[in-house]
Amino acid sequence: MILLILLGISLFSAIILAFIGDRKYAPEINIFGSAATFAAGVALALEVHFHGPIVAGGKFFFVDAFSVYLAVLTSFVSMTTAIFSRRYMRWERKHGRVGHWGMRFYHAMFQLFIFAMLLALLTNNVGVLWIAMELATLSTVLLVSLYRTPSAIEAAWKYFILCGVGIALALFGTVLLYFAAEKVLGEGGEALLWTNLNEVSGKLEPTVLSLAFVFLMVGYGTKVGLVPLHNWLPDAHSEGPTPISAVLSGLLLNIALYALVRCKVLVDGATHSHKAGYIMMGFGLLSILVAAFSLLRQKDIKRMFAYSSIEHMGIATFAFGLGGPIATFGALLHMLVHSLTKSSIFFTAGHASQMHGTQEMDKIGGLIRGNPLVGWGLVAGVMAIVGMPPFGVFTSEFLILTAAMKDAPFLAPFLLLGLGVAFAALFRRVQPMIAGEVPESQSPIKAAHIPVILHMALVFVIGLYMPDFLAKWFNTAVELLK
Amino acid sequence: MNIVAQINSILAALILLTAFGLLVQRRIYGLLHLFAWQGLFLSISTAVVGFVAGAHHLYISSVLTLALKVILLPYILHLLILRLQIRKEIDAVVNIPTTMLIGIAIVIFSYYLTAPVRELSTLMTRSTLAVALATVMLGLLMMITRRHAVTQIIGFLAMENGLFFAATSATYGMPLVVELGVALDILIAAFIFGIFFFQIRTAFDSLDVDQMARLKEED
Predict the structure, then answer these.
(1) Fewer CB near the last or first residue (10 Å), C or N of chain A?
(2) CA angle (B37, B40, B42) in 5-degree steps
């Protein structure tokens, strides 16, 4: 029941907002819908926390510790993004960057996107997971091209084509998975359910599953933004409206990684080897290094942080590939803190570009004097994302690094190199933007502060003290992913 | 039984043939016709497999393919081409003979890749899985070698055809809820690229995707 409410709210809000999208109170309804979704998400989490995993709706839904923590995170970040987008999109509307129909479309698709992501997390069916991932892509494609500029359309087209191709390959992988599962579980829908697959994973045909994993890795890996399949990501993040960059970076990448990790567990069970893990480690490490060095060359603020997202998804993928309790715990924590930190950075970066009328970093300056909360928000976000203590990203990166030194000592230096380069690159770029005098081109704006403060406070708290319930969730999830 | 397997193999061959046709056809209406034919072969093949295997949900899948891939999508594309007044296609990046050779290599590679699956399968359709994978890969090749937005979309849809064919030949079709969901996604995608064509046309004055080269890493 709670599952239907959780999914229903966002779908219902999408329909309502399609009708009233540009009215004065539409952003408030958007916030209200997202907040209700978050409340339902928390209720679901409590249910799972006290009564264990839920299988419901004729086995259609399946929620365990791994998916419920991502569901709460997804609904939370979409709520804060809705709060942020109220002021941000009003400014954009006032300055004519987006019109009446654009606003309607934006609000409706924002909620549909949340629905698709929650469906991907809560479903028990590998096929439905695929459908939800595709729906999440389709609902955001036209949001990336919302401003209708040639670059925005180019970015959206790239996003559409590359993710479309990627996800098609993932479907082929799903077909192969179904083929292997059908042999053990018999025909019909039962053979595509996680709950059934996990029970029999030892009996699945290893050769077919290895082949399936290659397709799933390339397919979902495109969505995670792993190098060399990452080309769509910086474009889509830099050209779309900032709230969309925040949810793409903070949420969609996580969901794609979730799908990949679920598949990896099955493949590991079938092949009794670490083959899938090695593939993920390879992709992860390559992403970290390529993204870190690309960071050095960026001129566009949102594009730079998009590359930083690639780097961090690489870290999480590497850690999941590494396996073992510490690395997996670190990876789960990393997904959480990266999502909170990166969306907060996008909020401040979005306001910074509104203040200067450009996303070029050379033209942005004096943020701390111009708007202290935006300036300090950006400082805190960047400090957190490069892995400075006491923020949560430090904790997760430290765990992952420790595990890497123990299990793959020859790879740890590369990991450190990537982190070091990213650290230097981000600081070199961010320092001139926050310090100094206010440039003449800067104009004051009404910024949305609550989301930034909320996110950074959470990342700060998690870095200092891990709440019991969170540790319990993660430990249960680590058991599941063993 | 044997005859049915042969009929299915012939249909698989025809699907592969249309995939190669799509790869080399230059005229845009020719592409549209080939795409519709491919959908028709796929639909017949699905129905035949459904009949022999007694898998009745495949009839629904077959009708869905017929309605979507043979009638609705080509019709929408036809309307779009008329509205956008596209006359001829632009040259591909790679010339025809090279494309064909790459295509042949892809088919051989697909047979190699699916060998373990063929050995394990007991279904009569098992030999066509390689053709299905080849169709997917050829669609991908088409998207890479062509620089026109409409052609790229036809390549994308041909890939989807290959995926449906893979589902029928490897497993007698995915569960119905999945097939319906995939069909719905394709339908939404169709509306999106329809909107896209107009946006691209307005922003770039043509549907040549080579013009989209603003977003690059500058040095």
Answers:
(1) N
(2) 110
